[in-house]
Amino acid sequence: MWHRTIAAVLFLLNSLGHSLAGFPNQINIGGLFMRSTVQEHSAFRFAVQLYNTNQNVTEKPFHLNYNFCTVPLPFFFSRGVYAIFGFYDRKSMNTLTSFCGALHTSFITPSFPIDTDVQFVIQMRPSLRGAVLSLLDHYKWEKFVYLYDTDRGFAILQAIMESAVANNWQVTARSVGNIVDPTEYRRIIEEMDRRQEKRFLIDCEVDRINLILEQVVTSGKNSRGYHYILANLGFSNMSLDRVFSGGANITGFQIISPDSPIVQQFLQRWERLDEREFPEAKNTPLKYTSALTHDAILVIAEAFRYLRRQRVDVSRRGSAGDCLANPAVPWSQGIDIERALKMVQVQGMTGNIQFDTFGRRSNYTIDVYEMKPSGPRKIGYWNEYEKFVYIMDQQVTNESSSVENRTIVVTTIMEAPYVMYKKNYMQMEGNDRYEGYCVDLASEIAKHVGIKYKLSIVPDGKYGARDPETKTWNGMVGELVYGRADIAVAPLTITLVREEVIDFSKPFMSLGISIMIKKPQKSKPGVFSFLDPLAYEIWMCIVFAYIGVSVVLFLVSRFSPYEWHLDENDEAKDPQSPPDPPNDFGIFNSLWFSLGAFMQQGCDISPRSLSGRIVGGVWWFFTLIIISSYTANLAAFLTVERMVSPIESAEDLAKQTEIAYGTLDSGSTKEFFRRSKIAVYEKMWSYMKSAEPSVFAKTTPDGVSRVRKSKGKFAFLLESTMNEYIEQRKPCDTMKVGGNLDSKGYGVATPKGSALRPLLLSLGVLK
């Protein structure tokens, strides 16, 4: 029994009208489906239903009916099936092809192409070998990683290795077919990243590619500079938004053309189906394997139409083609059916369908897609004759020429003085409701370029930052990345991280990060305010100088004989025995003399000795300088009101704990501190990210309001232009302190690769 078979479908093709000679009234077709092919099973039954109800067919020789039963594989052959449709994997492929080859029963499959030449196998899925090699040549990849699934065969691997030898490529090939733990993909990706590998060719089925891409996002390897080529025909069936949002380039292939009338007609009916009868229809995107399944019905029906027209005898006789017969006998008419299947040429959902002599698809076209902000976009196509044809340049030209014929969506943010509501905005509509610097800038750009535009305020009120977990962008950057806006005209800071996913113009304004605090209260004069003109250290030096000079003057006067003398009155009283001459410069008189000189006042005594007068003169000169400086500073202090600021720089913030500080959430200022390698800023970031309650403000007004209500216990870090603007606006209770922490600029932004960039930015902003 085939280990992955969930159902064997027995199809009865009944002839309508009289049976032709040699053509049976009933034809049995077997069907094999895996557990994971639920939608394909629905598509198969729906395709049969479409065939039965199609009234436009002029020649309708038979009707298709079916019933279900779960059976072992040999059951099909014992029931005398004429052909088998189904899926295989690497484990079941050899068994199926051996049975079909031995019994001459054709097997029609949408599974991966078989490398070797096998009879009685009709392969609905085209080979990607040529398309992959052409795309590698187009992008000039010479060094890349090739991740492949061994279940899909080695055809592309062999072709790549042959090209690598011929072209001197450096290819690192890794098999991921046996990996069960998804984190193993991450280990491989991170290992390749350490080797500076930025280019990956992933050759797997859709489910495995989605698992790999999830680990790409988790490991952060989806930023600008990474390029992923997905060697699978279901580009639109993959989850690519999160990978693309990081800035990575994603290229892949698509076999279903959404513009095809056949596809559109099928989808209109497909979306009206009841999911209870047709699981995974309607609300589930159509898989490319389901489209191949639909086309397989067309091929089978067309082949049997041909056989009936040619009156080929395909009736079964005896035990021919029964594997349970002993011995097993090949069915001779099976060759006629195989030949008819290979001769089919019909237009289906996957384009032109025809086969070569080995049952492989030939003369087919594969579309090449890239992920863009607006979603998957066709950039070219590949076929066997023209190889890869790049058509993106023509699309860009067409977009540029159509700019004047459509209204451009300009995303911006409500932030004074850049964008504000007018006082009477409720009475206005459209762009007339707004005013501000960026409103005027957008108007001037539109006037110079000659376009129509409408202003759109970003819904979440954020500038734009990437979520570290989901890797998705919010704010205005997210509006551009995900195609909801064409251009951003706002105080949007140009940063390296943002430039990975969007394009910027040259800066229209230069600025830097600054510190906003609540304006300190005016200081009231105290009892010792007279000391303020000079620093306390200077006052201490003056006191020590005063004491030192007094002591020196005392000692000099003590040892100098000229300071010992009698008054004239004392000499006249007793000339014969005069008293001992006194010394006027005792310790207290010395202190008094120095104090009088310092206060610019006179004194009853003065030194008589030369040494004493030198000491006194030096002291007088010193006091002259000090008093003059004090008087000048005192005048300034009396005429200018002083406000004492507790913070003067970022270093002051970092070394204290009383004043909390934070930034705007989801902005460039927060990103600056998060990525900074400067010790002071690293310390500040460590505090901010762990502070409770959170110090990050949702909007600038929220941050300013917190500064005003904090009574000086909160500092807000924001762009200098906004800081200076708010400082000059009533109630004028905030102030900017210190210099700017960095230097940057505001720029006008567009999505990556947008045709608007050269037209709007380079021309409009520079004018």
Describe the structure.
Pfam families: ANF_receptor, Lig_chan, Lig_chan-Glu_bd. The protein has 767 residues and is of the alpha/beta class. The protein has five domains: 23-125 and 263-359, 3-Layer(aba) Sandwich (Rossmann fold), CATH 3.40.50.2300; 128-254 and 366-391, Rossmann fold (3-Layer(aba) Sandwich), CATH 3.40.50.2300; 402-510 and 747-764, D-Maltodextrin-Binding Protein, domain 2 (3-Layer(aba) Sandwich), CATH 3.40.190; 529-562 and 583-639, Helix Hairpins (Orthogonal Bundle); 644-742, 3-Layer(aba) Sandwich (D-Maltodextrin-Binding Protein, domain 2), CATH 3.40.190. It is built from 25 helices and 29 strands. The protein has an eight-stranded mixed beta sheet with strand order 8-7-9-10-11-14-15-16. Strand 4 (83-86), helix 3 and strand 5 (106-109) form a beta-alpha-beta unit. Helix 10 crosses helix 11. The protein starts with 6 loop residues before the first strand and ends with a helix. Mean pLDDT is 81; it is low at 1-21 and 67-71.
List the keywords.
29 strands, alpha/beta, eight-stranded mixed β-sheet, Iono_Glu_rcpt_met, signal, disordered N terminus, elongated, six-stranded mixed β-sheet, 767 residues, ion channel
